[in-house]
Amino acid sequence: MVERRDRSVRNLEDALRDRLRQPGVVGFTGAPGTGKSTLVDGLVAHLRAEQTSVAVLATDPNSPFTGGAILGDRIRMQRHALDAGVFIRSMGARGHLGGLSLATRESIRLLGAFGFDEVIVETVGVGQSELEVASVADTTVVVLTPNLGDGIQMIKAGILEIADIFVVNKSDLDGHARVVTELRSMLNLAGPGASLRGGSGPSWKPPIVATVASRQEGVAEVWNAVLAHRRHLQESGLAGKLAAQRMKDETADVAAELARERARRALDEDPTLAGRLLDEGLPYRTAEEILRRGPIMGSER
Amino acid sequence: MVERRDRSVRNLEDALRDRLRQPGVVGFTGAPGTGKSTLVDGLVAHLRAEQTSVAVLATDPNSPFTGGAILGDRIRMQRHALDAGVFIRSMGARGHLGGLSLATRESIRLLGAFGFDEVIVETVGVGQSELEVASVADTTVVVLTPNLGDGIQMIKAGILEIADIFVVNKSDLDGHARVVTELRSMLNLAGPGASLRGGSGPSWKPPIVATVASRQEGVAEVWNAVLAHRRHLQESGLAGKLAAQRMKDETADVAAELARERARRALDEDPTLAGRLLDEGLPYRTAEEILRRGPIMGSER
Q: What is the spatial distance between Cα A242 and Cα A197, in angstroms, rounded to a whole number?
């Protein structure tokens, strides 16, 4: 229902209002082929060994239409199919520009109400998807590998600003030490404010964790780094500020979606209004008029 | 003003209302390194030789923060710096999820009012940016090269559905014939409805044009294909339907933006409302209340 932007999401909100409980939210992003999914699967196993329930939302912005993530999804589902403490879902972008972020936020809230302790949001680091992850997660983990092509320059502008933790996966490959060194000098150059945009504040220095996820090496260390970052957010008082900001962002997203839908319906159901818009070509004036009119009867409750 | 989402865009709309005129809009998308920019520069030269004025909006969704497109921008500006019939602007996504599409739509409308005959929208084909291009352009051109890596499989799901024209650039490279053959068989497999989503209708079969943009080879043929597609839209009656759909989409985008801003301001300026939101955790209820209240005094005109 959340993914297809069903109006009844609003009723779910009411139905679950006494059970709302914020889970821990950790975001994982990185280029295709860095082994993000293997690392996340390793973390799921690690968390289950500790009796922690965990949901994984894998978003693939490269699959605007259908099915891009389905195969991987099935394989992963099988491994955890009998474990009620694990929920895994691949969410495609489905052509909803900007809609992935709202669907992710709502899913996180619902998964919290359903009792999940942790939610892992995993996305391919292309375009703006890593920004979306950073905007919904408490802690953002950026996954790299030693075979970065042209080296550290492959790290896109902006990645430093959202990473709370770096993982160099496949660290049994040649070039591992070089990537870590280059990364460390970039972080030193960027200075203490580097991760400010990620919400960690100036006193947090993103750790670099080496892993070989396919052999479960370093997975526990990644989770320890997440917990250390979470403590940092609590102790610095940033946790509350971030939670408040996210709730406001979600409300603004919902307001935008309600207004967009109201405009679509008004233009579909009122030929006079639509005709005037096409005649005059004044979208601002028309949008303002639609918002002034208020909800169409029966369309919002 | 449009890029920084200045409130005065609304006043611009009024000031220019008697000059509004829809330019031709052609979108170019493709992976990095396919030579899109060189091809677009070649088209600008071709159009200028015909006394057609042209604006280029280059959007780079990979540069959410700063400066990613600036160097290329400068180089291109130099070539056309003295020509008042050419306008070139690089627009970064600037972290505004979904906002690029609205800024592009508004820029197109303004460039039309300023008298530009043609607007070329150029974007790197990653994530959802090619969907944004297809949603604002009359004609969408997808640029490929013979060195596609693993061959035609590199073409992402969905690209068939938005392409009105395919260009195989760098067609002096090995593998050119193979890419064209594979592309043609994909198009035949997909059947006549392939380009439906792009708005061309079932009777349009996307042509495949070979170019060597760096030597201006095939550039005129690309433009002829654009004009043929434009005639097809006119003669099939789709042109009017697409224009109406785009104006409605833009109005819905504006309504969403107005509502989002209204929600942000309400939550910033009304501590009681914000406190209740954080207490109860009910974003739908809060968003609906904000929309019911109407605009905050002085914030919208």
A: 11
Total Cβ atoms within 10 A of residue A216: 16
What ipTM describes this predicted complex?
A: 0.80
- The answer to whether the CB of A165 falls within 8 A of the CB of A69 is no
Task: Give the torsion sign (CA, B220, B224, B230, B234).
Answer: positive
Q: State which H helix or E strand residue A91 sits in.
A: strand A86-92
Distance set, CA B6 to CA B20, B218, B300 (Å): 20, 41, 11
**Which of B20, B129, B158 has the CB atom closest to A281's CB atom?**
B20
The amino acid sitting at B97 is L
User: Which residues in chain A are closer than 8 Å to B67, comparing Cβ atoms?
Assistant: 157
Mutate to test the interface with A, among B9, B22, B128, B293 (most CBs of A within 10 A): B128
Pick the closest to residue A171 from A211, A207, A222, A142 (CA basis): A211
CB atoms within 10 A of CB B239: 17
pLDDT tens column, A240-280: 998 899 899 999 999 999 999 999 999 999 999 999 999 88
Q: How far apart are CA A160 and CA A142, in angstroms?
A: 9
- Please state the separation of Cα B285 from the chain's center in Å: 34
Q: What is the pTM of this model?
A: 0.79
B122 in contact with A, Cβ within 8 Å: no
**Residue A150 to residue B150: CA distance in whole angstroms:** 20
| Numbered ranges of CATH 3.40.50.300 in chain A | 9-236
Tell me the two tokens of residue A51: 């009796």
Under a CB-based contact definition with an 8 Å cutoff, are residues B222 and B167 in contact? Answer: yes
- Is it true that domain A9-236 has CATH number 3.30.300.230? no
Region of B191 please: left (phi>0), alpha (psi -120 to 50) or beta: left
List all residues of chain A from 135 to 174 with a beta carbon under 8 Å from chain B.
156-158, 161
